[in-house]
Amino acid sequence: PSSTGVKNxxxxxxxxxxxxxxxxxxxxxxxxxxxxxxxxxxxxxAIAVEITEETEIIHGEVVEVVVDKPxxxxxxxxxxxxxxxxxxxxxxETVYELGGKMVEALSKEKVxxxxxxxxxxxxxxxxxxxxxxxxxxxxxAVGANARFVSCPEGELQTTRAVVHSxxxxxxxxxxxxxxxxxxxxxxxxxxxxxxxxxxxDVKVSEWVEEGKARVVPGVLxxxxxxxxxxxCFSFLNRALDxxxxxxxxxxxxxxxxxxxxxGTPFRAPHGxxxxxxxxxxxxxxxAYTEQExxxxxxxxxxxxxxKIDDEAVALLAKIGSExxxxxxxxxxxxxxxxxAKRRAESVALEDVKRCYALFLDVKRSTQYLREFQSExxxxxxxxDDEEDAENAPFNGANASGAPQTVDAAGSGDTGQPMAID
Length: 421
What we know:
Layout: E1 20-24, H1 35-45, E2 47-67, H2 77-80, E3 83-88, E4 93-98, H3 100-108, E5 115-120, E6 126-132, E7 148-149, E8 157-167, H4 168-175, H5 183-186, H6 194-210, E9 213-217, E10 219-223, H7 230-240, E11 249-253, E12 258-260, E13 267-269, H8 274-277, H9 290-303, H10 310-322, H11 325-341, H12 349-358, H13 362-371, H14 383-391
Parallel strand pairs: 1-10, 6-7, 10-11
Antiparallel strand pairs: 2-3, 2-5, 2-8, 2-9, 3-4, 5-6, 12-13
Organism: Erythrolobus madagascarensis
Region (Disordered): 383-421
Main location: nucleus
């Protein structure tokens, strides 16, 4: 294909929580970090670790919230405020004593009587789930964001398993003493030592054996893979052969045929060494038919909110089959602008023809250049004439070949030479 259009693929939906990382090969070349380190970070970003943690929560419907006055005047809410919270389920009702921080958290969420809330005992986080169905008739009108839920059943205090998903690269950055977790926000992670990664791999393996965590290999998409050099290919050979689940699915895309391997004088299919190609499953792509192009253009028109006639779509599909699908999509956009200029409701055949005459495709542009190449600036002066023009001030001859003399007035008519100090 003329371009790697598969770079817009999305994360696989079949595997929930699987990370998807897109990297272009041209992004790997940096003065601040080696290419193998950049590849390693991309590979470890494509591997997720799901850590299961059991936490105690309080889940119930608010019956009453009572906030006492501060103990002394001018005291902040976190110091001098206390209160009581009454929660209930379908089976029980309990009163909780509140401190200043919990009162502040409840007031921040604007919790009132009739709300169904959930409180994390470990962190003190308050989450408002909605209003109880029993309070649905208290108001004649409610907002669009109002959500009614049923009153919880069973015990107020329950244990719930919470799954935290984090990538191996994020664990590497957090455990790197040189940078710490703040590098996650700045993005300046730098190079991470191999010993740190080895210790993390051992710890993750222990968590997996104990049942505390689960490794989820994701997808690493390498676009423009022909831009990688021989060192990157050698590193990928070893990374793809990594045993266990600490290796993601690597998808490579390229639009090159038989071309040179970067960093070597050798040529190979797609610019990839043969020993690496032997480890890959190559997916063959075929050109779109005219009918398929028409369906794609119809979807594109719906996406851009453009009304187009059937004859115009058929012409665009024919143009796309003779030139390229991308050029046909560009013509669709420009034809919509031409249609808007003449204040029509839908793109007609004349709009497409007008844009096709105004904007050239690659084939017509190349043909035009070959036909009128003598009219362009770089063809007006030949190489021999250019060399003569450069040497003319130094060979002492004018255009006629006779010696040129300059008089005192600066003219060359008298034939008397002028002395120059």
